[in-house]
Amino acid sequence: MILHELIDFETLRVIWWLLLGVLLIGFALTDGFDMGVGALLPFVAKTDLERRVAINTIGPVWEGNQVWFILGGGAIFAAWPPLYAVSFSGFYLAMFLILAALILRPVGFKYRSKRDSARWRQGWDWALFVGGAVPALVFGVAVGNVLQGVPFRLTEDLMPLYEGSFFGLLNPFALLTGLTSLAMLVMHGGAWLSLKADGAVAARARIYGSYGAAGSIAGFVLAGLWLAIGLDGYALAGPNVTDGPSNPLLSEVMHGGSWLAAYADRPWIAIAPVLGLAGAALTYLGLKAGREVSTLLASKLAIFGMISTVGLTMFPFILPSTIDPRSSLTVWDSSSSHLTLFVMLVATVIFMPLILAYTAWVYKVLWGKVTEDSVKNNEETVY
Amino acid sequence: MDLDVVELSRLQFAMTAMYHFLFVPLTLGLSILVAIMETVYVMTSRPIWRQMTKFWGTLFGINFVLGVATGITMEFQFGMNWSYYSHYVGDIFGAPLAVEGLMAFFLEATFVGLFFFGWDKLSRRGHLTVTWLVALGSNFSALWILIANGWMQNPVGSVFNPMSMRMEMTSFYDVVFNEVAQAKFVHTVSAGYVTAAVFVLGVSAWYLLKNRHVELARRSIAVAASFGLASALSVVVLGDESGYSVTHSQKMKLAAIEAMWETEPAPAAFTAFGFPDQEARETHYAIHIPYAMGLIGTRSLTHEIPGIKELVEDAETRIRSGLIAYEALMQIRSEREAAPEAVKARFEDHGADLGFALLLKRYVDDPLQATDEEISLAANDTVPTVWPLFWAFRIMVALGFGFIAVMAYFFYVASFRNMTFPRPALMLAVIMIPAPWIAAELGWFVAEFGRQPWTVDGVLPTALSVSHLSITQVALTLAGFVALYSTLFLIEMGLMIKYIRKGPYLDMPISGNRPDAPTSEPTPGRTSGLQPAE
Asked: How far is CA A157 from CA A69, A355, B81, B91, in A?
């Protein structure tokens, strides 16, 4: 098959780096408000009926949203196998926590209102809270660790050996990024609930959502300052081969300098943090003013900007190694083969527009607020 | 290589995969049965069919959510527990998993919400379309997962790249149209259809025994029996197709399933019964059916099927050939592009046997230092433990024929005997509910256990595929999964039983001619003996 050489290897790698970003952002934009609603559940909804209103705003869409997570995993496996192998085995217990939380969540949505018992429902409310808050926190902790580098090395056979511990992940910088991520998704959940719920639930969601917006701005700025003064970055040392075989050991990497050097090399990337901060500020103002649709859009902009900031700052690094910088994974040495990247791109070009189209259609069909009356009147079908 | 981590990781994978597969077959089949019922509703406008759609749809939902939840684990545990596997074959194996997400899972999961919440928001045809899209999505899902699994059984369309130290794809077409994958797909979805048919039949039979929801139960039996008969026939016929494809791709698995120790002159006999003895390499008290094995396995009277002893000798030859490839690879690895052409050519010639040399890693760190004794031990390792395969396969096949018989009987009574089912037949249908799950799990057991000692047949040994984790880590997550999954299983069973006892609910008058009547006052169908007059 010669067809795949239509697009050169270097370009395909950059495209797949972008698509990795698209998937992570897609996940944060859709499943993100599910997690935010879960984390907010005990705070914005006090009575059983209020909780059902909050849950039913995401009831019909969580399944589709969750697929962004699954597809993210599948795409990392298919396009960046070394990243998939190193990160998931390295963050082993943290991954288990995320999986357990994400398993409890869908089950909570579906089963919570299937029995009348108050204890049963309280139990599931906890599951939904954990299923929302824990992954939101842990994803941020993971990002913080990726920025610092992770203690792994690759053997000559490219077998990943991880030498850190679970508690090593919970260092101060990572906790800061974890809390920032939690605040960001709380903001997003608040913006969603203010649009889709009404009455007391929406009113409380606006208050807590604005805390989330303020918190994410503070955390994002603090993390930026930390990068500027307290944290070393990574850089490629030696010739930069962009279309060579995917073998991280073939390139030389240097630990030192600052991640923020990227902003001197590529000043245009400053647009990402600017959008992130502007989006969060607009969300804060929108929640205070009670605007609905535009606030959700602003919250999406904030998430887009903040996640893009991490990716653009690190480019071309994907997962640096602290103990053996040479093992670090970059865009140029940890992708799938030329053919696989091409095949996967074709599949994405065909199916992604379809997915976006029918997802948009489903949200359109479900347009409108979930109210206490709508929950009471559809007792047999709603959650 | 630490065998305890390997064993624990295998146990965890087997546990999570088999648990996931408790929910998948019912999703595959019930999505289609529900879509069929709704189609009848849209065509005839009879409210009873809408009620059936909603009732079976509720049970579908309780089951579906656990399929989704446990599927999350499946997508991520390759990286968590099998990181060398993920690196080594991710270039090929990851692609079908990602396409599954893009093409199938998104479709199914996005529309399933509308299936439950969209009754009042969509036209009847619109809702029917949504239901069929859910069914289509779940079946496409199975296709891509089985393409991935089929590649592990028969790794076509790929080659080892010494520069990146991993397998890389050479032809996506070959991976997708892998004969093993295609045979597995049709066999597996048919098994899902049988599972759902048996489930619907059993629950409906229980209603008839209790004289409740008779109209719903009778119609459901009619649908389930005809759908189930066709599916049970195809699961057996297509299972045979699957066996035929194994004959040329996985000779050792076939020999182990059949406990065929010696190569027999064609056409070989089929061992219907016996007690395989791994140590002595013979089967005690065997009952043979002449010619049958040769016919099933090769569809001819002249092709030989190799026995286990001959295959072990082949494996030893391939290990020695693999060692030549391994030695060449070590030189290419250290000298990269500068390696002499002769060495590269030697790797080309013997590269296909590289995986066999890796079997030695279980005994020595450097396969090149292996003794003759270790080589013969490794060759022996290519034989999976025979007796569990032998029995699991036979029980699965017997159950398969049982499904055909029961479905044929119910189809006959439903079509020609005016639905007067004798009580013992109804009781049998209730008792039979767990049987398709047993058959399906045994099927997976045969497929995966029969592939040992490989994760990817002939390419990568299981013992080498695992992550570099401690026993404590794996034991912790294994305990965590067992606790979480057991709890969820009990909860799910409890809800299933509650909703089956509760029966269908009415959201409109069943007897009226107003199929689109307002749904504002739902009447809970708690009253037993609810028998709508048509």
From this structure: 30, 39, 18, 16
